[in-house]
Amino acid sequence: MTTARFDTLLVANRGEIACRVMRTARRMGLRTVAVYSDADANARHVREADEAVRIGPAAARDSYLNVEAVVEAAQRSGAGAIHPGYGFLSENGAFVQALDAAGIVFVGPPAAAIAAMGDKSAAKARMANAGVPLVPGYHGHDQDDALLRGEADKIGYPVLLKASAGGGGKGMRVVESADGFQAALDGCRRESQAAFGDARMLIEKYLTQPRHVEVQVFCDGHGNGVYLFERDCSVQRRHQKVLEEAPAPGMTAELRREMGEAAVRATQEIGYVGAGTVEFLLDFSQGSSQERDGAFYFMEMNTRLQVEHPVTEMITGQDLVEWQLRVAMGEALPLQQDELTITGHSFEARLYAEDPAQDFLPATGTLTRFAMDLEGASLSSSQEGRAKVRLDSGVESGDVVSMHYDPMLAKLIVHGDDRDQALATLNRALAALDVQGVVTNRAFLQRLATHPAFKAAELDTRFIERHHASLFAAEHPSTEEYASAALIALDQLGRERESDSPWDRHDGFRLNAPHGIRIALCDRQDEASAVVVEGSRESDAAPWCLTIGSETLTASLQPVEGDAVAITLNGHRRRLQARLEGDNSIVMVDPRGESRLLWRRIDAIDHGHHEVESTLTAPMHGTVVALLVEAGQKVEKGMPLMVMEAMKMEHTLTAPADGQVERFHFNAGDTVGQGDVLLEFTPDE
Q1: Could you give the CA distance from residue 372 to residue 561 in angstroms, rounded to a whole number?
Q2: What is d(CA 12, CA 33) in angstroms, rounded to the nearest whole number?
Q3: More exposed terminus of the chain, fewer Cβ within 10 Å: N or C?
């Protein structure tokens, strides 16, 4: 491994990790260089770097995975070192060898260490030699179908098939019985060959309720090695992590020491240098989540910085990227084992552009707004002054989320004095995130973080699968949520003035009488159950009086900052993110979760502005129920012309003046959009 002082660092990555690495590099006085594909020409990491070099078209294989292009970019920019981030070339031994040949420092382990852990079967053998506990399984070279089937039979079902050269959940399947073994083997081989160019498999005993606990390790070029404690990454979907925390709940000091020392032995076995993560399966006995001993088994080692490294930084107070850069410069580790301590608790939530309701289908589009209400995220009590919120992101408002790369937008990291405080902070911070324009998993993360089993630290790698019904159950809004949504809609109507004239107001203004409006609201998940809210108030300065069924509430709204608002209902004030999406949708987010409601005004909608026009337009999206007059018929002002249905409620459109209906553009049963021209109308002279 080449080590030398350098003053310019190229980050061979993109997105949030590129931004995060450059942040530390700049603080250390280093000049930063970004690389980018055509799809990322205007990306945030490019904007933040001191210099940026194009390395190819959008496809990762032609840009971020192009070793020759990345090395050339480093040479052109005068970079003395390259930080690979994670993913892409971070665990590519050939890339490290190319940098060594070019005299460029690789901020990571030597190629030999990457190779030692890149082949999972060979890595298992070396870990056994180092005395690191292994899950019972088969890690041999013989890949004959019959032999693999026989090994699975000996291990006992269920077993886990894993690609020997793989990672990220690719080429991995659980086999419940001998009957399904061959089909699973064939499928795993296809996936592994396609993803890694290697179809070799290994087999392990599948633990039914294990926890995924990993240990952060660090080694320098002077023979020093330490562990910076552990992270629990059990909450996963399709073998990919969703929520991580440090330290792992339920750990005894003895178990923590045993796992940490085993992880350091693993690094010493392969001559490791730099940051790495040794991943274990932790098999606690059934029972409470109180501290107890458990059996742990080596799973794999990631020879790079992990996505979830910030939770370790939060509890140790150390900057792991700075450690990486100093070790790459040939320095010794900043601290020894007895100097490292744990302070408080930390969580990380990964914010993805994806739709959990559509099996986590990745989403694309333009982020019309990406911001965080930091005041709303912070804890107000002076007793909770150590609570912290950190947002590591690679995007800003106006950025485009493309289809070419991983859909992760940001990582939300929080810290508290203990697990309960950190979890409360996480919920507040998720509610304070304001992301518009692209579908995200934010609401799903809130449901996870507020789930009773997660709050009780009843964790295992099948957490989402076991709690699928409750995590995806439809929860109907409360009366308070309906009232809040109505207040937001009323506020919007109050802003829709075409002039300063009271006759152009759409907020229920009445001369010498209280303002009065009726609004229909419904949950997107159940449009059959619409709720009617009647609102009235004496003046613009007065609070609204809202009636929902038999309940009456006094309500007022105060904008705070961005999309944050303070809503007061019967003297109870709460802060939340609230916005209108489109013409008739309201999104509200607070620490209890996210609500999405459809709304429309159902009292006499003002059609006065149509009196000089020859058309009538649809006031909302809906379906035509009936045409009440004939084309060519003479009508009087206020006479019903047609009936529309929206949100399972009917609305009658009336003649704006005396005149004649010339023709209809839609028939009964047709679907119309808000603003569609419904009919041609000629007013009388």
Answers
A1: 10
A2: 9
A3: C
Residue 481 and residue 338: Cα distance in Å, rounded? Answer: 51
The position carrying tokens 């030699």 is 129
Tens-digit pLDDT profile for residues 279-299: 999 987 544 344 446 789 998
Q: Give the separation between CA 372 and CA 434, rounded to whole angstroms.
A: 6
Instruction: Give the number of other CB atoms < 10 A from CB of residue 141.
Output: 8
- Residues belonging to the active site: 304
Helix or strand (DSSP H, E) at 184: helix 181-196
The tokens of 79 are what? 């970079």
What is the full DSSP assignment across 479-529?
Answer: HHHHHHHHHHHHHHHHH--SSSSGGG--S--BTTB-EEEEEEEEETTEEEE
- Identify the residue with better confidence: 97 or 373: 97
Residues in the chain: 685
Distance, CA of 212 to CA of 234 (rounded, Å): 5
The tokens for 50 are 């001191």
Placement of tokens 């292994």 in the chain: 134
Q: What is the pLDDT of residues 66-115, one digit of tens each?
A: 999 999 999 999 999 999 999 999 999 999 999 999 999 999 999 999 99
pTM over 0.70: yes
Sheet holding 225-237, edge to edge: 294-302, 274-284, 211-219, 225-237, 240-246, 345-352, 408-416, 388-393
Q: Check: CB of residue 6 under 8 Å from CB of residue 80.
A: yes
